[in-house]
Amino acid sequence: MSLYDSIRHLPLHVDGYYLEPLEREVARGFTLRRTVVVLHGRGEEGRGEEVDYDPRTQQTFQADEGKLPFAGEHTLDSFSLLQAGQSEYRRWAFESAALDLALRQAGLSLGEAVGREPRPLRFVVSTRTANVPGWLELYPELRFKLDPDRDWTDEVISTLRHVDTVDFKGIYRLAFGSPPDAELYARVAEAFPEAWIEDPALTPETTKVLEPHRDRITWDAAIHEWSDVEALPFRPRCLNCKPSRFGSVRRLFDFYDACEREGVALYGGGQFELGPGRPQIQLLASIFHADAPNDVAPGSYNAASPVAGLPLSPLAIEGSSGFR
């Protein structure tokens, strides 16, 4: 039985839904705004998080609260069909809330529903390079996912330790993206011979310098379903799996099945989730790839500067009812 077949027929009763705005200042002068979707029915609530980064999108979404006709009897699968045409982030918000509600109404945890138990979750911290020494002073065993750039001189590189993933952001566009840089790629790949090399922009120049490291190249921004893996220039050993990119639960679970079948390892990632989305991606990582360098650290690790007294990796994940 496929993973999705194990949950697709879960009954889902929806009385209605409402939205909760979330916001947090994540950098000086920059406030991140998100929306929590709350589906409710039969005395239970299911929650999901809309992770679109555009504040105008969030504002428009919140202004239309309660207008979608979701009340009634569904299965998880039939409710999913109602989300066709939504953006991937919006669809994930509603479908993750529906999965949470359906499991709670059935009195099941996600692990029980799919026949897999959560395991202690290994996580890495994605942070500014300048913060690494401070974090290591507080937590000497902490490990990192870092974004190399032209400021990574040889002197800077020599100070960095415990780096599990380097993210070149060569697949992103606009403000989030970084142009291809063969010289930088070569220096970083050689300096961290055990790290995954995420999202390089492949040009004739960068392909040449990365050829000795090809088995460590992994992808993130381009991966929304299994067909995206088949379209890659070569089959990777490992991929970054961000659930919200997939939109539908079915697409995500089919992806898990395909990766297991084809021998592609996974590690988890997120979209700076502020609310229920974070424990959800942590739960998924603990069930499907607990021992990987998952970029799903507790939200306190997103602090602007290192903070003492935070939970350590591996993180214990409880398999309580629902999808949280």
Topology as a string of helices (H) and strands (E)? EEEEHEHHHEHEHEHEHEHEHHEH
**Overall pLDDT score:** 95
Low-pLDDT parts are: none
- Identify the overall geometry: globular
CATH class of the largest domain, please? Alpha Beta
Q: In which order are the strands of the major sheet placed?
A: 6-7-8-9-10
Q: What is the number of beta strands? A: 12
CATH topology of the largest domain: TIM Barrel
Compute the number of structural domains.
Answer: 2
What percentage of amino acids are in beta strands? Answer: 15-25%
State Rg. 20 Å
Name the CATH superfamily assignment of the largest domain: Enolase-like C-terminal domain
**How many distinct helices?**
12
Alpha-beta classification: alpha/beta
The level of helicity is 25-40%
What is the first-to-last residue Cα distance? 24 Å
Q: What's the CATH architecture name of the largest domain?
A: Alpha-Beta Barrel
The major sheet is characterized as: 5 strands, parallel
Indicate the multimeric state.
Answer: single chain
What features would you highlight for this structure?
324 residues; alpha/beta; Enolase-like, domain 1; TIM Barrel; three-stranded antiparallel β-sheet; 12 helices
Give me a quick take on this structure:
The protein has 12 helices and 12 strands.
